[in-house]
Please model this.
Amino acid sequence: MLGSFIESCPRLVQRNDASGLTSGTDWQAACAAAPAWPASNAAGFFASYFETAEVSDGATFVTGYYEPEISGVRVRQPGFDVPVYGLPADLVRARPGDAPPTASGNQPLGRYDPATGQFAPYFERGEIEDGGLAARGLEIAWAADPIDFFFLQIQGSGRLRAPDGSVMHIGYAGQNGREYAGIGSLMRQRGLIGTAPGQYAGSMQGIVQYLHDHSDEGRALMRENKSWVFFKEIGGDGPLGALGVPVRGRTSVAADPAFVPLGAPVWLSVDRGEASGLWVAQDTGGAIKGANRFDSFWGAGPDAKAVAGGMSARGKALLLLPKGTLARIRPR
Model:
């Protein structure tokens, strides 16, 4: 845990905190002390340099994600027909005045139509699957199974393992700006998952089983999630989170940077013991929105997949801020 905080420090002391809670100087004392602090007494470090705060009422909902490994190759070959696209050059933010800002105040993502010059939403999932980006040289790899790749997109990074055993690590490069829809929520609304006879389990494993058992309906369901994630090849010893540092299993969480400073420690006390404890906010996610919404990262492999796929925990969250921060931001 202390190691992940140390990895976050170069970003913490320099980046603009979108939550407005901290500035780079707030983190300087803790970040200066951390490298020399004994790892065996990490708890003492956090107690010495931090104070806790609830954001809103502190009531939290925690899910899980992991680094999936699926079958894939760099060069297309029989049985590997699902394109893994790199970031297209025509995916841009609208110029001011060409489209209304989003709820966050940013200009929306989209493209300028080459025929009319007008700004338009970017291709959605169904349009991309139907060939909207084909023959443009954007393919950085090819996956074997569209369902596996769909869930890799949701995770935001992963590994492609070729038949010869070679592995290609891919990470998030961007998103098409279209609406994200959680297919688990859609299935629950439609009575497809639950505990009644004929329903599928609400875990990721149950959702995947439904998609395999009902290929046509499953394909249409996945297309209701209009969001599409673009990838790039990455190196290093772990997938990179939104903070620009590797995320670590059982250590890193994704959070909403509008409420949680990326790089900040977070204490979770929830009804799933394995998710309770100290984490470091180092990532974001399209579905991770709100003051106390977190997505816990569990690493790679079958165990990580099983825990992340079934993770749904509720309880309390405490944000750890450098000592002195609360006195400065609280109104007198």
Summary: The two ends are 34 Å apart (CA to CA). The first strand starts at residue 50 and ends at 53.
